[in-house]
């Protein structure tokens, strides 16, 4: 009997030791998220205020004031998370930076504006059109729309500024006769110059021509694959995504409080027009599993190196079991 009891106790001890060895522990870690100033950072401002720590992860949010700075920081490949113009997600992947697409922070919120009325886009031939970020999403989308309307790039004069905030005074004073403007700059400009009008909603035009429901993904959230693999089973990934979803819902429904939060965080925002700007912001976090078609259409359009082929962009997307 004594031998039996001793055997049972030994088995229990082995079982308990085995269970303790299987217990998962996570090391405290600091990570960095880079995001452009403007609508993308406004979208996650509530998360930036409330969710600096999720479980064992401390998040350092870094708002980049210009497109050039954002691209430079992304290409270093050091940030675990980034919100970027969607075309950069493809560029980063091709450069082997191992970023995966989590989803879109916001759908198209770009608008062609002017004091002038035009009946057809062909009237833009020979005109100077201002835009931001040469080679980034605003530039790519607008040029593709022109091409779809049989207008070549050579028939239009393009002028670029480094940040959307630089467009506001140019458009409001009439120096920029035509400009592709995002929210919330759009509402700022229209409040200062009531003669400014929307000529074209780029997202609606893109969705119609490409037969997709949501339009084009303007801002994309990407995650380093190594970091994703570290957190995917710890619950951090789900909490992180939920914090962004909840932040966007808060921002859309509480614009004035959001403006105060943004000012405290150093995010550029105009309190006087934030209510109006939310109407055209098109902020809606969408998980990649629910918008693969939109990304496939967008990437197949901008991927000039492989244009015409039946491309498969699935390796770019996060796959969460």
UniProtKB/TrEMBL annotation:
Keywords: Signal
Pfam families reported in the protein's UniProt record: NMT1
Gene3D superfamilies, alphabetized: Periplasmic binding protein-like II (3.40.190.10)
Span of the signal peptide: 1-22
PROSITE patterns recorded: PROKAR_LIPOPROTEIN
Limits of the SsuA/THI5-like domain: 72-257
Membrane-crossing residue ranges in chain numbering: none
UniProt key word Thylakoid: no
SUPFAM superfamilies, A to Z: Periplasmic binding protein-like II
InterPro entries to which the protein is assigned, alphabetical: SsuA/THI5, UCP027386_ABC_sbc_TM0202
Tree of life domain: Bacteria
Protein name (record): ABC transporter substrate-binding protein
Source organism: Clostridium disporicum
UniProt lineage: Bacteria, Bacillati, Bacillota, Clostridia, Eubacteriales
């Amino acid at each position: 009997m004594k031998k039996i009891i001793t055997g049972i106790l030994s088995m229990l001890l082995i079982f308990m030791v085995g269970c303790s060895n299987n217990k998962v522990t996570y090391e405290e870690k600091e990570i960095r998220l880079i995001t452009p100033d403007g609508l993308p950072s406004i979208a996650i401002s509530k998360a930036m205020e409330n969710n600096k720590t999720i479980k064992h992860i401390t998040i350092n949010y870094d708002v980049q004031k210009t497109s050039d700075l954002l691209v430079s920081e992304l290409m270093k490949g050091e940030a675990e998370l980034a919100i970027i113009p969607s075309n950069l997600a493809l560029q980063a992947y091709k450069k082997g930076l191992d970023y995966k697409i989590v989803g879109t922070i916001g759908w198209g919120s770009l608008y062609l504006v002017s004091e002038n009325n035009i009946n057809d886009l062909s009237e833009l031939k020979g005109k100077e059109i201002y835009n931001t970020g040469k080679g980034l999403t605003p530039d790519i989308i607008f040029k593709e729309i022109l091409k779809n309307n049989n207008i070549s790039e050579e028939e239009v004069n393009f002028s670029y500024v480094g940040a959307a905030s630089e467009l506001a005074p140019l458009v409001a004073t009439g120096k920029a006769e035509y400009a592709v403007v995002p929210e919330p700059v759009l509402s700022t400009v229209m409040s200062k110059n009531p003669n400014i009008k929307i000529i074209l909603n780029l997202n609606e035009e893109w969705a119609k021509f490409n037969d997709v429901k949501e339009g084009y993904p303007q801002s994309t959230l990407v995650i380093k694959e190594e970091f994703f693999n570290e957190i995917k089973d710890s619950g951090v990934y789900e909490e992180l995504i939920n914090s962004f979803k909840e932040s966007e819902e808060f921002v859309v429904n509480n614009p004035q409080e959001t403006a105060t939060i943004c000012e405290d965080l150093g995010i550029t925002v105009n309190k006087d027009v934030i209510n109006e700007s939310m109407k055209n912001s098109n902020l809606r976090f969408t998980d990649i599993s629910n918008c693969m078609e939109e990304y496939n259409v967008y990437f197949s359009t901008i991927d000039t190196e492989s244009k015409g082929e039946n491309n498969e962009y699935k390796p770019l997307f996060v796959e969460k079991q």
